[in-house]
């Protein structure tokens, strides 16, 4: 269970990570929720993928026939007829042939911006300027006049280019416009100039539409304007102008905000364009999002085949009753564009897709509420992610991020596939990803800082493996002080003061290093926390900062191991060092204690003082180890004997102290059992005031005891003799210690 300090630390860390995540979200939304090139590019790629996975079902499938066909000035046609531009008489022959085959309308995705140089009149003028005399019959028609006559026969749409590269005023539009709602001049794209056909062709044509595509950031044609402006006039796109001409409509109806049934948002915007019986939804600037089908059922006729009556007849079914677009796929004519479904596609096919889509009535719609919804979803999903990272950590947080992104993309795909809605998953997905990266980085930074702090703070106190355990799980540590039950150990070298008087400082330092190193190794291996070294003395404790449920037993075994390590040191160094070890178990305040300038991980409290007093008692009893009663109770099973009931200096309440002779193995030997019985008899007689019987029991126990207990029985022999000579008036069995 977490401590209050741990909970405070977790809350503080969660607050820091949460603030970092929210600031990242705000920065991301401010940077990318507007007209961001990166966001636009990624969104475009997503919906390109959607269209490739589920292309639009073309009108030929849903309505029993394709509404559009293409006459392609392809590479084969150029090889057969000759280089482009062809004589206008050849183009006129194609127009006439299409009309004969039953085309509803013929729209040109090419522009005839200069007179035909192959016309006899033009050629005669050129020869005359060169000094030649040329006489032409009076009834010879100019090639451009031939094409104009073909145009004028009806249902032909001349194409032109809207551009900002010149300031040429385009010819007036052929179609009329009716407006419902706001004035379109406030929202339609406005172009400075144009590149149009020669005047006689424009005048003869029944329709006039632009076929240029405004450039996109990545060069892929996804959205095109259906209406645009230039020099104060409104012009339709070639596709919708071809439809208007095919169905005999005289004008377009432009719906905008503020019209009947349309919300007035205060921002002028277009909402739909009505072409004959078709009402086409548009974006605010009259833009139309194309949903590509691939037009696999559409008739594609090589232009050269229409010049041959025998070949042209086979295309009657594909042309009759359809809008026919004349364009080019020849590489040299540079009318190739990139679309979501093709890296290189003739531009005329884009116009064909628009017509087919309008006739099929299937539209991709981006609702007015979509941008706001995407921002709201981004905020919601990001907050869910932050909660997941803070609750489950970076790894499961990554899983949560992937699931959240999958949900965003899945919802977007479902809306696209089932409702033809364009709901962008990129903003929510990138916001989740960005916040995950930042939040995880901050979390790891804070965690690493905690681990670094823990390592630095405890590498001098704990064994390396325990430091790593603590660093991996700092939650087990409560910094700043907490109350815990611990077992405290004090030890020092007997007679060190007199020993050091015979040595110089370098020798003393060397001796302490050789002594403290093996003692420290023993303590660290047992899981102890080294508190401090005080000259030749050591203070350490167990059960903090890491929990150790069996800390009293660990401490007792460590004390026994210290004696063994000392024996090995004495044999190796030829010395006769002796130590006294005192142990006590009790509640203490442990934590980083000290000042703001300098602190250390330590323990304070009455239990620490008792441990120090117990260590001092080892001198009086001549014992290497003394432990208190609470330590003894929790270390049951070890070979231990009760030593005395002592009232130490500074405490009114007496404490029972015990000595350790060995581990569980020794505690079950016959030798210890005999000693334990004799020793227990001595203590019982002594406490009851039966001093004569106590003296006999002490003598019996002394004969069974190892050398380390001989001083203890000598102390008792002297004490019992003194009490026998002068029996106390009231006897409670408590010995009063006279020194610390």
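^ Assign residues to that structure.
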């Amino acid at each position: 269970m977490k401590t209050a300090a741990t909970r405070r630390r977790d809350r503080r860390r969660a607050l820091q990570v949460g603030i970092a995540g929210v600031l990242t979200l705000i920065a991301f939304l401010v940077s990318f929720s507007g007209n961001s090139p990166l966001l636009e590019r990624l969104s475009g790629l997503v919906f390109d993928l959607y269209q490739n996975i589920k292309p639009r079902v073309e009108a030929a499938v849903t309505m029993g026939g394709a509404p559009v066909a293409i006459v392609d000035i392809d590479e084969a046609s150029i090889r057969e007829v000759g280089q482009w531009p062809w004589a206008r008489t050849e183009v006129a022959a194609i127009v006439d042939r299409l009309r004969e085959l039953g085309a509803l309308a013929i729209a040109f995705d090419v522009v005839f911006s200069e007179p035909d140089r192959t016309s006899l009149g033009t050629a005669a003028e050129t020869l005359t300027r060169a000094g030649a005399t040329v006489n032409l019959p009076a009834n010879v028609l100019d090639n451009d006049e031939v094409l104009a006559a073909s145009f004028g026969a009806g249902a032909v749409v001349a194409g032109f280019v809207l551009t900002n590269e010149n300031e040429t005023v385009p010819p007036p539009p052929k179609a009329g416009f009716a407006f419902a709602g706001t004035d379109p001049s406030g929202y339609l794209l406005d172009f400075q100039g144009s590149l149009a056909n020669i005047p006689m062709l424009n005048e003869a044509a029944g329709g006039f539409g632009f076929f240029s595509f405004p450039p996109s950031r990545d060069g892929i044609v996804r959205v095109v304007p259906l209406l645009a402006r230039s020099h104060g006039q409104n012009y339709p796109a070639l596709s919708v102008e071809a439809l208007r001409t095919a169905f005999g409509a005289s004008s377009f109806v432009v719906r905008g905000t503020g019209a009947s049934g349309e919300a007035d948002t205060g921002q002028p915007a277009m909402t739909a364009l009505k072409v004959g019986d078709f009402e086409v939804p548009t974006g605010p600037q009259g833009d139309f999002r194309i949903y590509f089908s691939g037009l696999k059922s559409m008739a594609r006729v090589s232009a050269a085949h229409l010049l041959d009556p025998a070949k042209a007849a086979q295309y009657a079914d594909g042309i009759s009753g359809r809008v026919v677009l004349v364009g080019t796929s020849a590489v040299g004519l540079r009318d190739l564009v990139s679309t979501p479904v093709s890296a290189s596609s003739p531009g005329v096919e884009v116009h064909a897709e628009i017509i087919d889509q309008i006739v099929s009535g299937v539209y991709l719609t981006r609702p007015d509420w979509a941008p706001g919804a995407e921002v709201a979803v981004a905020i919601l999903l990001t907050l869910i992610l932050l909660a997941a990272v803070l609750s489950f950590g970076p790894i499961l947080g990554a899983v949560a991020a992937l699931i959240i992104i999958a949900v965003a993309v899945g919802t977007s795909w479902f809306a696209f596939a089932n409702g033809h809605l364009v709901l962008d998953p990129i903003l929510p997905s990138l916001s989740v990803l960005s916040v995950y990266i930042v939040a995880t980085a901050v979390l790891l930074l804070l965690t690493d800082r905690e681990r670094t702090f823990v390592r630095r703070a405890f590498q001098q106190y704990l064994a390396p493996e325990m430091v790593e355990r603590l660093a991996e799980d700092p939650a087990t540590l409560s910094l700043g002080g907490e109350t815990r039950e611990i077992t405290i150990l004090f030890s020092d070298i007997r007679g060190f003061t007199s020993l050091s008087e015979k040595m110089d400082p370098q020798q003393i330092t060397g001796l302490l290093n050789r002594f403290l190193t093996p003692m420290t190794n023993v303590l660290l291996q047992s899981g102890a926390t080294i508190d401090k070294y005080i000259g030749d003395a050591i203070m350490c404790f167990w059960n903090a900062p890491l929990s150790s449920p069996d800390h009293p037993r660990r401490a007792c075994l460590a004390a026994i191991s210290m004696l063994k390590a000392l024996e090995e040191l004495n044999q190796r160094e030829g010395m006769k060092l002796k130590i006294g070890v005192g142990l006590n178990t009790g509640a203490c305040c442990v934590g980083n204690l000290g000042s703001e300038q300098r602190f250390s991980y330590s323990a304070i409290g009455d239990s620490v003082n008792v441990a120090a007093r117990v260590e001092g008692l080892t001198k009086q009893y001549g014992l290497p180890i003394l432990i208190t009663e609470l330590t003894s109770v929790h270390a049951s099973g070890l070979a231990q004997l009760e030593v005395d009931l002592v009232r130490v200096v500074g405490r009114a309440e007496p404490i029972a102290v015990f000595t350790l002779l060995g581990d569980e193995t020794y505690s079950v030997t016959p030798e210890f059992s005999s000693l334990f019985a004799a020793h227990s008899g001595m203590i019982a007689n002594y406490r009851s005031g039966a001093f004569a019987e106590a003296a006999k029991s002490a003598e019996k126990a002394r004969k069974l005891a190892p050398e380390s207990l001989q001083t203890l029985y000598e102390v008792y022999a002297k004490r019992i003799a003194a009490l026998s000579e002068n029996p106390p008036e009231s006897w409670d069995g408590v010995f009063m210690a006279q020194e610390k």
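The chain has 25 helices and 27 strands.
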